[in-house]
Amino acid sequence: MAQHIARKRFGQHFLSDGGIIDGIVQAIAPQPGDAMVEIGPGLAALTQPLVERLGRLTVIELDRDLAKRLREHPQLEVIESDVLKVDFADLAAKAEPKPLRVVGNLPYNISTPILFHLLGYAHLIADQHFMLQKEVIDRMVAKPATSDYSRLSVMLQWRYDMENVLFVPPESFDPPPRVDSAVVRMVPLAQPPAVDAARLGEIVQVAFSQRRKILRHTLGKWLGEHGFTGEFDIQRRAEEVPVAEYVALAQAVPP
């Protein structure tokens, strides 16, 4: 079969380090019969050891040539699609009564949109393990009052327990990316706070729109326009406000 050339427009970097692949599989700990979905299987470096342990695996692949190759594997269900257009509720319904487990080496150029797309399905998912750019994972798990703490930190931490589980150097890929990578484990909180995710997202986006400014200049104005009369310290920067305070604020602002 002809060699597949990585396509820049798809952000393709294929994992090729056997030791790293073993480490990722150990972190995921697949069990026979798990309802698992892999995003961006590529040349099946991770797909093969996963399906050997699972028995069956659903994969989502946008690249037509790679999808064609993957269909030759009888234990794979191949969804040829942009992952941002995939309805994970449909996949979860097919998997019932088991919750979905989602894994993948996410294309670095659209990793954040994918994470936000999956956020809406968190109640249907048992866990997620993703290979991402290390600096993205640093932001995902960042604590308040640090330079990495951001909109991404807040919007994921209110819904998931997350940890960086494995460092992956550039030479683990072909072609090597120009950045360090890592693997993150994301476990949806069993009892997340009851909050309008859209409202929380709007508040956090306004807060971090000018992160160097005091919130009085950004979020303070927004709160006034939305009839908020409660107490909230706007003499701070966005990065100084803990996740729980953003959630409480979203719960308190009038609809």
Features:
Rossmann fold, single chain, 2 domains, alpha/beta
| Rounded radius of gyration (Å) | 20 Å
Query: What is the CATH domain class of the largest domain?
Result: Alpha Beta
Biggest β-sheet: strands ordered side by side in the sheet: 4-3-2-5-6-9-7
CATH topology of the largest domain: Rossmann fold
Note the total helix count: 10
What summary fits the major beta sheet?
7 strands, mixed
Order of helices and strands: EHEHEHEHEHEHHEEEHHH
Specify the oligomeric state: single chain
Distance between the termini: 58 Å
Kindly state the mean pLDDT as a whole number?
93
Whole-number total of structural domains: 2
| Unreliable residue stretches | 1-11
Report the count of strand segments: 9
- Strand composition percent: 15-25%
CATH H level, superfamily name of the largest domain: Vaccinia Virus protein VP39
Specify the CATH architecture of the largest domain.
Answer: 3-Layer(aba) Sandwich
